[in-house]
Each structure stands twice: as structure tokens, then as C-alpha cells.
Write a structure and sequence with these properties.
The complex is a heterodimer.
Chain A (H helix, E strand, L loop, with lengths): L25 E2 L20 E6 L5 E4 H6 L3 E8 L4 E12 H5 L8 E6 L3 E6 L9 E6 L2 E2 L9 E3 L12 E7 L28
Parallel strand pairs in A: 1-5, 2-11
Antiparallel strand pairs in A: 2-3, 4-5, 5-8, 6-7, 6-11, 8-9, 8-10
Chain B lengths: L5 H5 L4 E13 L2 E7 L11 E7 L5 E7 L9 E6 L7 H7 L5 E8 L14 E6 L3 H13 L6 E7 L17 E7 L16 H7 L8 E7 H14 L6 E6 L7
Parallel strand pairs in B: 7-8, 7-10, 8-9, 10-11
Antiparallel strand pairs in B: 1-2, 1-6, 2-5, 3-4, 3-6
Classes of the chains: A mainly beta, B alpha/beta.
Chain lengths: 201, 252
């Protein structure tokens, strides 16, 4: 049994459905920012998104080409490993199913590369079947740079550090290579519902 | 799963019971809690830990807080500032007394850390408000190790009353401390009295090409501002370590 903290009452929020909060998380109406360095600012004319690695042929989209792809609008809850969760966030972006359509690969893993030398790793299957997007609008507006604009990976079923801001490249790999936070002691997979925050959680 | 080294495989992060040994009033809105944590595995300056509070009915709340103390200290210190309308910080700032118990888990975080063994490159630390906490762990670690790494600490506070660790912020050999008070200044103050800007950084910081390791911690708008200024001045982005807290304001 955990020790009772004398005098701690807590504040249960009647407006928050506890079933929507993964273990150890708390609800916030805010949108905190977590990034390891300065916010990069890449001009859209120089921006591109590439899928490469263990593929027959690498594919690259310019900003205009990305916007021309079929987009989806979605409303999801997001969960940050630093314990805040935010409900009903609205996004617009291109499904990874669309981007990976026609990409031939035998890879099982993906390293997402972002401006600012950030990387994160995911199993490829976690990007497929309507589970992941390249998002470029938040709340009906262009995505703010500090929240990952012009475009970020959006993988809402995993802790939000997997949703790499400033996404530029997805490298498909046969081996699973721990990314920036993963190599620093955070969990390799990061399922909030199993509270996989740190190594061996 | 990737192959795990035995060290990493052994590094399961456990919840441990922490006993409050001492409570120090730092400012009207902030307190330092000195904790006894049996079997604390040690930390690096700049890391944080998770805390878990449990109410009598079993309700729990978790948060993350930066560690304020040097790794060399025989206890773990957290400095916690009141968050308006917060759930957990009012407990720590207004309720907790020596002898009280809660759980901690950590240390956590490997990027926003500095060690006296990191190398001879200068250290530039820039704090907004309670963002001073993890940077103070670095200053204290540096002192505990008698490091001579040239170090600059720039602290931005709203007023002298809001400044954490005021008595401890004194210049020492190779340690230069600058303050700016953005709202209220002490009588006769001739120092900085504005938000951090290019001129202030030019005046206090080492040269952008000095190889300095830079750590910036504070509220999100502060860190966005300062890291942007540093990039403008020519500090290589990869040398700038940032830790932000709180909301962006406008996006919700």
C-alpha cells in the first residue's frame, strides 16, 4: 500500500471522465510545450518530408505536395510522459497510410527524424491502419512552431514524445534503434495505458 | 525490442518513500523540501523526479519536479513554487511539514544535465523564475566539486521577493551571476530591469563561438524568447539545452 500523504486531499474534477485518463496522468486544459532545444524555423520553401531507409525507392514531398494529398481531420486525446493529458485536441493532416501507400518495405521499425537533431523510434505497425498522421493544423489553424509546426508526427496512442515535432524524415529500418529520449532512459515503446514511461516499465 | 545492456536492463525506476526532513521558506510562493529517500540511486545535476501523493481514500496525483540539490548532498531537495489553481503545488507549499511522507520515482531525464566531468567548456545558465531550480543543482554541483569551469548564471525574476536562493547567489571565482528584475527592482537598483534581450546576453554571456554549454529553463514563453535570442547571436542550436514548463498561453 502506498503511504498516505497527511493532509493531501486532492482535487477530483467532476468534469473529467477518469476512464479517459491513463494511470498517473492528470487533466489539463492547457497545451504545455516540451522540447529539448530551441524551436527551429525552417522556411516552407525549404521544407520537405522524406520516407527512406529499407525501401525500394525513397519518396519526398515538398510542402505543396504534402498539402495536395488527401487530408483527414481528427479529434484525439493526447498524453505526455510528464503526466499531463489533454482531451479532444483537433488536428488536420495526412495519414501515414496515405504516405506509405505504394512504399515497398520489409522493415519492422521506423526512426522519425526532426529538425533540431531529434529522433524517436516506433514499430512500423504503430504508424499503419489509421493510427498516425503528419499533422499540419491544430485547432483549425496552422500548427504553431513551438508545437511542432509546420508539421509534426501525430501518434496519439503513444506518449506524446513519439509524436515528433518538426518532422522531416521517416527512415524505415530492420532493427529497432532507440531515439533521443529512448536512449536517455525513457521507454522504448511508450504506451500510456500501460504507463510505459521509463525503461522496463 | 533492442538488445538491452545489463546496466540498462537493471535500471528499473522504482517508487520510493520519501520522508520530509526539513521545509525551508524560499519566497512567499516557494518552499524547498529536503527529503530523506532511502536507497536513492543518485542523480545528475539538472534531472527531475516524479512525485506521487496519496489521499486517505486512495486517490493519487502525480507530478514531475526538478531536483534542486547537488548530487553530492546526502538528501534530495525539491523547490516547489505555487501554481495558481494547482492541485499538488499548494499541498507542498502550504501544507507539508517535516515528517510527512510521499513517494518519489527517479531520477529522470538525461538531456538537461551537466557534470563537472563534462569538460572544460564554459557554462551558460539562464533561468526564468522557478526555472532556476535545476540550474541551481548545477551551480551547487560545480561548487561541491570545486570546478573551475567558467560559469555565467543569468536569473530573471519579477521582483527581489520572487528570487529563489537569493543569499546563495553570490559571485565566486570563475562564477558570474547576473540578475534582472522585470517588474519591481530594489531601491537604488542599477542593474538590469527588463526582460532578457540581445544586449543583456551580449553583456553577460560568453562568446557564441566559445563552445559554451547552454542551459535555459523557465516558463514556455521565456524559454522560447531566450533560446531564439541565443540562436540570433550565433550560439549553435545543438549546444542549447532547453527545459520549458507551463502552458503556451493562447493555444487552448
Amino acid at each position: 500500500m502506498p503511504p498516505v500523504s497527511r493532509g493531501f486531499l486532492g482535487r477530483r474534477r467532476p468534469d473529467v471522465d477518469p476512464a479517459r485518463l491513463p494511470p498517473g496522468q492528470y487533466f489539463t486544459p492547457d497545451f504545455p510545450v516540451l522540447s529539448a532545444g530551441p524551436t527551429p524555423h525552417v522556411p516552407l520553401a525549404e521544407w520537405s518530408l522524406t520516407i527512406d531507409g529499407a525501401v525500394d525507392a525513397a519518396v519526398t514531398w515538398s510542402w505543396e505536395e504534402l498539402l495536395a494529398l488527401p487530408a483527414e481531420e481528427l479529434t484525439v486525446d493526447i498524453h505526455c510522459v510528464t503526466k499531463w493529458s489533454k482531451f479532444d485536441t483537433t488536428w488536420k493532416g495526412v495519414s501515414l497510410d496515405t504516405l506509405l501507400e505504394g512504399v515497398e518495405t520489409e522493415a519492422d521499425y521506423v526512426t522519425a527524424w526532426a529538425d533540431g537533431d531529434y529522433t524517436t523510434n516506433l514499430p512500423l505497425e504503430d504508424l499503419l491502419d489509421g493510427k498516425a498522421w503528419i499533422a499540419y493544423e491544430y485547432g483549425g489553424e496552422p500548427l504553431d512552431p513551438e508545437h511542432g509546426g509546420p508539421a509534426r508526427l501525430l501518434v496519439p496512442h503513444l506518449y506524446f514524445w513519439k509524436s515528433a515535432k518538426w518532422i522531416r524524415r521517416l527512415t524505415l529500418t530492420g532493427d529497432d534503434v532507440p531515439g533521443f529520449w529512448e536512449a536517455a532512459g525513457y521507454n522504448n515503446y511508450g504506451d500510456p495505458w500501460r504507463e510505459q514511461r521509463y525503461w522496463n516499465d | 525490442m533492442p538488445p538491452l545492456s545489463s546496466e540498462r536492463a537493471a535500471r528499473r525506476v522504482l517508487w520510493r518513500e520519501a520522508v520530509v526532513r526539513d521545509v525551508v521558506v524560499e519566497t512567499p510562493r516557494a518552499r524547498t523540501l529536503a527529503l530523506d529517500v532511502p536507497d536513492w540511486p543518485g542523480h545528475r545535476a539538472g534531472q527531475h523526479l516524479d512525485v506521487r501523493l496519496t489521499a486517505e481514500d486512495g486517490y493519487q496525483a502525480e507530478r514531475s519536479y526538478s531536483i534542486a540539490s547537488a548530487p553530492e548532498l546526502d538528501r534530495v531537495e525539491l523547490t516547489i513554487e505555487l501554481v495558481d489553481d494547482g492541485e499538488v503545488s499548494p499541498y507542498f507549499v502550504e501544507v507539508v511539514e517535516p515528517g510527512d511522507v510521499f513517494e518519489v520515482r527517479g531520477p529522470v531525464g538525461g538531456h538537461f544535465t551537466w557534470s563537472a566531468d563534462s569538460g572544460p567548456e564554459p557554462l551558460l545558465l539562464i533561468a526564468g523564475g522557478s526555472g532556476l531550480v535545476p540550474l541551481m543543482a548545477m551551480v551547487r554541483h560545480r561548487a561541491a566539486r570545486a570546478s573551475t569551469v567558467p560559469t555565467t548564471l543569468l536569473v530573471s525574476a519579477r521582483s527581489p521577493e520572487d528570487l529563489l536562493y537569493a543569499d546563495e547567489l553570490v559571485d565566486a571565482p570563475a562564477l558570474s551571476i547576473a540578475r534582472t528584475y522585470t517588474r519591481t527592482q530594489p531601491p537604488g537598483w542599477t542593474g538590469f530591469a527588463r526582460r532578457v534581450n540581445h544586449d543583456m546576453l551580449r553583456a553577460v554571456a560568453p562568446a557564441p563561438d566559445s563552445g559554451a554549454r547552454v542551459f535555459v529553463c523557465g516558463p514556455t514563453p521565456f524559454v522560447e524568447l531566450v533560446t531564439g535570442l541565443l540562436v540570433d547571436l550565433g550560439f549553435p542550436p545543438r549546444t542549447i539545452h532547453a527545459e520549458r514548463f507551463g502552458p503556451t498561453g493562447g493555444t487552448s
